[in-house]
Amino acid sequence: MNTTSNKMKEKIETIKTTRLFLLSVIEGLSEEQFNKIPEGFNNNIIWNLGHMIAAQQGICYLRSGLELQVPENIFHEFKPGSKPEKKYSQQEINEIRSLMISTLDQLITDIEKEIFLNYTNITTRYNVELKNITDAIDFMPFHEGLHSGYIMSLRKLV
Known about the structure:
There is one protein chain. By secondary structure, the chain is mainly alpha-helical. It has one domain (3-157): dinb family like domain (Four Helix Bundle (Hemerythrin (Met), subunit A)), CATH 1.20.120. The protein is built from six helices and two strands, in the order H-H-H-H-H-E-E-H. It has a two-stranded antiparallel ribbon. The protein is globular. The mean pLDDT is 95.
């Protein structure tokens, strides 16, 4: 594995650490609490978790011309521009919580396999240009931080 791959792996491990912390913060919440949209908000805790997964899948895999590593319905229900459209069951919540970590483990495996050979440029809504998988991984902590903040605020209100 080359130096760039090692640096990407280290960044993903840091993201994994923050996701594990976030999962500990929401441990013990009820199905109702995961699904509740407080006044003044347009989404809920489970949507933010799912969105973090969907965004990572989009900027890493789809932009690289690769298949999603999550079920298509999860990607579509949580992709950028989506909003909560239904109540999620405890089983669905558990699946999303599990994907928070397994998708990062898969990303590390795929970086080690060097499968991210092509990339379709995108400029994010935050005006950040992503030109390759390294840019995508560099952008993830910013995006994850935003949604972690939303989750922390939502946690206080549910």
